[in-house]
Amino acid sequence: MSGRVVHIASNTFREAVRDRVLYNLIAFALLMSGAAILVGQISIGIERLVVINLGLTAVSLFGMVIAIFIGIGLVSKEIDKRTLYTVLSRPVQRWEFIVGKFFGLAGTLVVNTFFMALGVFAALLYVSQHFHAADGWVLVALYFIILQFLIITALALLFSSFSSPLLSAVFAFALFVIGTFAEDLRGFAGMTHGLTRWLATGAAYLVPNFSALNVISSVAHEQPVPGHLIFSNTAYALVYASMALCGAVLIFEHRNLK
Amino acid sequence: MKPSRQITITASVLLVSCLAGSVLLLRSIDRQRTGATLEEVLYISSPKLLKHLSLGYDGLLADIYWTRAVQYFGDHLDKGAEHYNLLGPLLEITTTLDPHLLVAYEYGTNFLAANGGQPRRAIELSEFGIRNNPNEWHLYYGLGFVYYMNLKDYSKASESFLRGSRVPDAHPFLKVLAAQMAERGGDIQTARMLWTTTFETTKDRDIRGNAAAHLRALRVDEDVPILEGLVAQYREKTGHLPQSFSDLEAANLMRGTPVDPAGHPYKLMPDGHVEVRVPDDLPFIQKGTPPGYIAPKPHFKPID
Fold it and tell me: Which domain holds residue B231?
């Protein structure tokens, strides 16, 4: 990675911190501590289950909101403030700008997820009094959530490279919802025939597959996640995010910024 | 080559490679996670809880669960599975989310009773459907069908058809079926009436095909004893068994060579039994099969 990409990434990270993005951690901390204290009083036997389900779902949703709403503004904000022209007038190529922005936001999300993960484990320790071996799978679920962030960040950047912030948010959110049902979509495609089958299968493979990256329910039930799935999901998320980034680079490279 | 052009080419090549790579990886993930989406049903198995969690979008969620049930059933049927453990929960979730999704009751009871081996659960599903859609005569018909076909409980079947016949705009045949079932539940005539009603009232090609296959099988089950009866008459008359059907014709017991519903002439065996020529072409037949014949998985053509 070139030094210029690293500079843009670190600036994007600093900007996100300055924009008080990490303030969501306060809301998350309140949610987790509230859940941990309350659930023990109002329910029997599902404290651990609730903390993992609620905690990981909150990590995923908070991160998704950040990824979409910061991601869609990464390019358009720079154009509106005219800071993009200052950046591009220096020896910085357009693809470096896009890739740097991606890594900056991805870094922000990783740091954010790290602190939220600490919150989840603290709540887990509070309700269970000690950690179980199966709690290690929660780390895998968190890792998969980060992989989801990489995909959605790349998609938000892709839409941001050619569309308005509002439409980009709608597109990114719609793809997040569709991607959650990706396995069903491929199942539907498999039930059709002829041209419809080709079109449906094509669409089903084009949308991101978030369903395989969501193992929250299974880890809450102490189900292990197979190693080959971790490997395949990692490869898939990296390849899909790269694909979306390539699309963003291609569009941005040919965009008239005058 | 200009740098911009170089970047465009590199990004384009990368994009296409990544797209191909993502499809391949996704196929690999799908193979690793066969049925994973369905197994997750077990994590939230309470239909009522799911209804609350759907935030009002229960209709859409019901459609998704119904499609999952169809996929699950089809997949298991293809594999020749003996157990359909998730079918019941999937159908319960579907119908709780949308109690007016009639198709889920109509097909679901059939899935559960005929292939899933869970007729009692099929009856519960039907009764739930009737409670929520009391004016749908198809549901009473489905319920009676399960009692008749899977439980051989003819009085309950008759009662179900009778209940259905009281529904406004019910098919007139329900009343006849109820009476027929009460009088002669196990008759071939009753079975024929049921399958004919199914054939005439459904728009589904597969169900029509299945009904037609059953009707063909019933004809064979009716033909074979009649033909064997004629053979017995010939033996009484002549003191020996006929060599072929032409002997029966010569004795004025029948006209022409009898043909089965698949279009093949029946076979007269040396011991006087009558068999169909290609039993695989006539799924569901009970009579006229060679000794020790094991029927393959029923296969029939859908009918428009």
Answer: 210-281
